User: Which sequence fits this backbone?
């Protein structure tokens, strides 16, 4: 954890529209210099949370504190908003030059012309768009426009940056180069940021903390490692890329490991649970190894099961293999191994995975 | 045929020699319609923006009323302005019926809904999120409105042109409330009507040409503006 005071804190936030609760967050904290990602499917409440944090949406109830000071709806909102910057999925540029766009936040603050000029030039340079200075914002490409939007946000030297899916509508190469630059700039400036995305890889790349949202709630918040490897429930697990989630009963417990029974098979897992308890086992597809049925190859994996391939789908560089080992299992194999093992639908293979590669979620306790 | 040719010849003579009567009529037209357009811009843009940005019950009704107002028949406006300014009407004590001021009032009433309707549409077609972005940039409400108006500047320029074009070519209300008094409240349209009815086609044609030229320039500027809105 980062050892510093929280810069932004939200408590008991509820946003209600009509009968539906759009957002229900008991507590949300972000520290100085921290980058926190909000991930979740569309409609999870990421945008609503962002707009509430910036007070563009007045919460039905709850409080927001900035550096320990409560934001009051009537008088401190403007002061607060002038300390933050927000970037949306659409660049939302003004119908003027790139320079004037980047300068707009400073003009709003009534800054002197000479000072504005220096700051804008600095940001244009930082985002590699100096050459576009005098271009009309309407003529920019998607990537250039989003760079301008980011430069506009950074020009006010925000204390906290709210990024609402800023890369969602960019093509992959443009997105990659922009993420790389943003990562670098965030490091350089040490600006705290909240970054909403539905792409878990983007989140992994940028964040110190990841919060997984669904249906207006934060389901889990933790370091990328925690969220990816110890998902607290089924939803988080499947959202962070676990493809196999099995429900089983604990039948044996032995020190640090438990044996669970699933569809008459026994799976050994490192973890802790009482005998008789129902648990969910989460197995990431990249942790499942396949070998040919006849091979007598020794493996250190505790769990080895014969199975039949039911379906193979291509993911480009690798293949997703669905297996029936009396329980369903998904494995990723490279195109190369697929050929080497001559895997085809209907073939019998051996699937193995380590007892340590499984995350146990206790049902009903999270 | 002679009639028309003779008329056109004489009309050009009147224009080239800057005939004082024709020039006076043209200037008064520009003055009355120009002032009326300016006033309508003030009311039309402020109310148009306010309606576009606020949420209230019955907004749809208000919007459709404004849109209906864009097609307000000038004679109806003339009728009501006349009634209000009539000697013993509610505003009769001003004594301004049959003056250029009455014409400015009538033309303002005609132009305001036009400007308002176009402003409303112009502001509404800006992306919703733009407002959030402006506020997130730290703008006050007033700054936000000003930035939105600047963002809609091209359609707003169109509103100016449409408002001015609407009133400079209008005849019904002007003749009713202005009275077409020679050298006082006679404008291009009312003079054209009168000269035509008298058979003075030369002057009527000259006035008509001036009106056509004005209409041409207004449309030229409008077209330029519309072409500029989509550079991509």
Assistant:
């Amino acid at each position: 954890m980062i050892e510093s005071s929280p810069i932004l804190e939200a408590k008991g936030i509820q946003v209600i529209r009509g009968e539906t609760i759009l957002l229900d967050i008991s507590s949300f904290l972000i520290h100085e210099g921290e980058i926190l990602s909000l991930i979740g499917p569309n409609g999870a409440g990421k945008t609503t949370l962002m707009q509430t944090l910036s007070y563009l949406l007045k919460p039905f109830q709850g409080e927001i504190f900035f550096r320990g000071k409560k934001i009051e709806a009537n008088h401190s909102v403007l002061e607060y908003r002038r300390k933050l910057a927000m970037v949306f999925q659409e660049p939302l540029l003004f119908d003027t030059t790139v320079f004037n766009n980047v300068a707009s936040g400073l003009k709003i603050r009534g800054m002197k012309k000479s000072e504005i000029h220096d700051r804008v030039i600095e940001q244009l340079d930082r985002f590699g768009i100096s050459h576009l200075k005098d271009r009309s914002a309407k003529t920019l490409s998607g990537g250039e426009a989003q760079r301008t939007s980011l430069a506009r946000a950074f020009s006010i030297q925000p204390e906290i940056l709210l990024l609402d899916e800023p890369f969602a509508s960019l093509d992959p190469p443009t997105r990659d180069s922009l993420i790389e630059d943003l990562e670098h700039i965030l490091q350089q400036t040490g600006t705290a940021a909240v970054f909403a995305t539905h792409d878990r890889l983007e989140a992994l790349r940028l964040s110190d903390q990841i919060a997984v949202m669904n249906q207006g709630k934060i389901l889990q918040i933790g370091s990328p490692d925690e969220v990816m490897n110890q998902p607290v429930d089924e939803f988080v697990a499947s959202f962070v890329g676990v493809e196999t989630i099995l429900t089983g009963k604990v039948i044996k417990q032995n020190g640090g490991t438990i044996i669970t029974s699933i569809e008459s098979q026994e799976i050994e897992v490192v973890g802790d649970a009482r005998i008789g308890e129902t648990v969910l086992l989460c197995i990431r597809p990249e942790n499942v190894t396949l070998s040919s049925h006849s091979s007598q190859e020794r493996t250190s994996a505790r769990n080895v099961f014969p199975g039949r391939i039911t379906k193979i789908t291509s993911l480009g560089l690798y293949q997703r293999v669905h297996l029936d080992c009396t329980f369903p299992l998904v494995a990723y194999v490279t195109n190369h191994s697929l050929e080497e093992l001559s895997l085809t639908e209907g073939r019998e293979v051996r699937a193995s995975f380590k007892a340590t590669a499984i995350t146990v979620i206790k049902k009903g306790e999270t | 045929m002679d009639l028309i040719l003779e008329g056109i010849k004489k009309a050009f003579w009147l224009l080239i020699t800057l005939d004082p009567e024709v020039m006076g009529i043209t200037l008064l037209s520009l003055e009355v319609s120009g002032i009326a357009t300016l006033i309508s811009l003030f009311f039309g843009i402020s109310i148009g923006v306010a309606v576009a940005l606020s949420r209230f019950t019955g907004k749809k009704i208000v919007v459709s009323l404004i849109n209906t107002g864009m097609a307000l028949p000038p004679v109806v406006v003339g009728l009501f302005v006349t009634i209000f300014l009539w000697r013993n009407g509610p505003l009769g004590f001003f004594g301004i019926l049959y003056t250029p001021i009455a014409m400015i009032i009538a033309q303002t009433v005609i132009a305001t809904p036009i400007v308002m309707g176009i402003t409303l549409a112009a502001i509404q077609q800006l992306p919703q999120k733009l407002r959030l972005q402006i506020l997130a940039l730290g703008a006050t409400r007033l700054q936000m409105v000003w930035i939105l108006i600047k963002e809609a500047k091209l359609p707003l320029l169109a509103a100016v042109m449409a408002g001015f074009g609407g009133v400079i070519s209008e005849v019904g209300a002007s003749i009713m409330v202005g009275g077409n008094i020679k050298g006082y409240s006679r404008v291009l349209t009312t003079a054209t009507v009168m000269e035509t009815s008298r058979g003075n086609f030369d002057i009527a044609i000259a006035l008509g040409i001036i009106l056509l030229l004005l209409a041409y320039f207004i449309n030229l500027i409008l077209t330029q503006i519309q072409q500029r809105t989509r550079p991509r």
